[in-house]
Amino acid sequence: MEIYAEITLYVTICFCLATLGMGLCAICGNYWIDASTYHYGLWKYCFKYQGQVYNADCYDIRDILDVEGYHTFTQVFFVVGVALSLVILIMLVLLIIVAIDVEDRKLFLFSTIILCIIQAVVLFIALAVFQAKTDNQGSTGLDQDWTTYLGWTTAVLSFATTASMALHVVLNRGFYSV
């Protein structure tokens, strides 16, 4: 049973790395929303065709649009969720590398699980708000694109990170006395 406990810790790290990587790609992506002549992400607004009013392809979204509150909310919550992914990854690596006594290891593990839950909820809320608000605008020809789906995959992976962390505790409950 001990081998499964160690494997779950490494699987958790893999989930956390995937969450961090996909989250960073979603933050940087310019295809959260796609329309016939433009597309935009959390930070950039891009024109698809040259010869429109603007010369460059992409601009800061605040220079083009009057950004609504939901968009700023999504920016903040999604960035916080991805940043928590980095914090969780550091904590998991420290859990493996640093020799921590049993009592402190329990507290460290409990803190990591709490951060995993907070991260998953924050990412889910950010994406749910964005989805709800942009679905209301769907009649104007706006479609959600691959970066939005990458964001949803990030949220699902954050839940998988939480589940594999909990599985690690269950499989190793003799050690943690949980």
What does this protein look like?
It is a single chain. The protein has about 180 residues and is of the alpha+beta class. The protein is about 70% helix and about 10% strand. It has helices at about 1-30, 60-65, 70-95, 100-135, 145-170, 175, and strands spanning about 35, 40, 45, 60, 145. Strand 1 and strand 2 form a beta hairpin. The longest helix has about 35 residues, at about 100-135. It starts with a helix and ends with a helix.
Shape: elongated
Structural class: alpha+beta
- Largest sheet report: 5 strands, antiparallel
Q: What's the SSE pattern?
A: HEEEEHHHEHH
Please compute the radius of gyration using only Cα atoms.
20 Å
- Which strand order do you get reading across the main beta sheet? 4-3-2-1-5
Q: Quaternary state, please? A: single chain
Instruction: Give the percentage of residues in beta strands.
Output: 5-15%
Note the total helix count. Answer: 6
Low-confidence stretches: none
Cα separation of the termini = 16 Å
- Could you tell me the mean pLDDT? 83
Helical fraction equals: over 70%
Question: Which labels suit this protein?
Answer:
178 residues, alpha+beta, five-stranded antiparallel β-sheet, 6 helices, elongated
